[in-house]
Amino acid sequence: MIRIGQGFDVHQFARDRKLIIGGVEIPYEKGLLGHSDADVLLHALADAILGALGKGDIGKWFPDNDPAIKGIDSKVILEKVWQEAKKESFQLENADLTIIAQKPKMAGYIPKMREIIAGIIEANVEQVNVKATTTEKLGFTGREEGIAALAIVLLSKKQ
């Protein structure tokens, strides 16, 4: 059995917050606003996995009005979602992830993001593709108001 899922997430920039993308802290003058650490890339990936499983989204699993998870590390969110996939005997075939941001530049951080993500979802780094793009100064990302991320995953059921 093969399942495909897609995910999308957006967070706006905020002062006095760390910028964490793909589990990597990136030095920048602003971070992202959110109930968690606001890691848009890991949120999009978690949503893609939940979509492939037919189990809703991270808002259902990790509601932003739950004080018990305020400030939660998004690596924990992804780990819990991945445990749900494993419980149903799914494994990752591949994940293709896109960060949409005018600034900061992401290229130097992508190898570490791939390594972190692969470690959490028990995959080879080659199964996890991460890329970044700008919107050529168009829209909210182009105006440097925030960052968005897209994710698509292909899962297969273990025999």
From TrEMBL:
**One Pfam family matching this protein:** YgbB
- The EC category is lyase
Q: Name one GO molecular function term.
A: metal ion binding
Q: Which domain of life is it from?
A: Bacteria
Keyword Lyase present in the record's keywords: the answer is yes
UniProt entry keywords in alphabetical sequence: Isoprene biosynthesis, Lyase, Metal-binding
Pathway(s) per entry: Isoprenoid biosynthesis; isopentenyl diphosphate biosynthesis via DXP pathway; isopentenyl diphosphate from 1-deoxy-D-xylulose 5-phosphate: step 4/6
Catalytic activity annotation: 4-CDP-2-C-methyl-D-erythritol 2-phosphate = 2-C-methyl-D-erythritol 2,4-cyclic diphosphate + CMP
Residue ranges of the 2-C-methyl-D-erythritol 2,4-cyclodiphosphate synthase domain? 2-155
User: What EC number is given for this enzyme?
Assistant: 4.6.1.12
Q: How is the cofactor bound?
A: Binds 1 divalent metal cation per subunit.
Q: Name one GO biological process term.
A: terpenoid biosynthetic process
Quaternary structure note: Homotrimer.
Functional description taken from the UniProt entry: Involved in the biosynthesis of isopentenyl diphosphate (IPP) and dimethylallyl diphosphate (DMAPP), two major building blocks of isoprenoid compounds. Catalyzes the conversion of 4-diphosphocytidyl-2-C-methyl-D-erythritol 2-phosphate (CDP-ME2P) to 2-C-methyl-D-erythritol 2,4-cyclodiphosphate (ME-CPP) with a corresponding release of cytidine 5-monophosphate (CMP).
What does the similarity note say? Belongs to the IspF family.
Task: List, alphabetically, the PANTHER family matched.
Answer: 2-C-METHYL-D-ERYTHRITOL 2,4-CYCLODIPHOSPHATE SYNTHASE, CHLOROPLASTIC
Which HAMAP family does this chain map to? IspF
Entry protein name? 2-C-methyl-D-erythritol 2,4-cyclodiphosphate synthase
Q: Which organism is it from?
A: Tepidibacillus fermentans
Q: Which gene encodes it?
A: ispF
